């Protein structure tokens, strides 16, 4: 893993956060692998989707940007397992919830892609 790999993953994560904030499936399709596994691990709201099913949900939501919600996101950890495997732990607050994402990335050709998104959420505290 090189400093270039780290920078590429940071850029991918910036597009990921941007796509979620604007509910932009075009941006998100650029960061996700075509074989994405999307898993909600929140107790009582377990959900397993593929990329197209997830993008339909994104397209149907009101973007946090349109509602004027402030952006609140952070990368907590980036770990490389090899020159083709990485893991990112991220958190974000949007749509009235605090999210914790565990993202698995694989290098597809010259680009990193998110192949699994496993997450949980809690309602925001007032």
Automatic annotation (TrEMBL):
Q: Which domain of life is it from?
A: Bacteria
Query: Pfam families from the entry?
Result: Lumazine_bd_2
Which InterPro entries does the entry mention?
Answer: FrzH/put_lumazine-bd
The name of this protein is: Nuclear transport factor 2 family protein
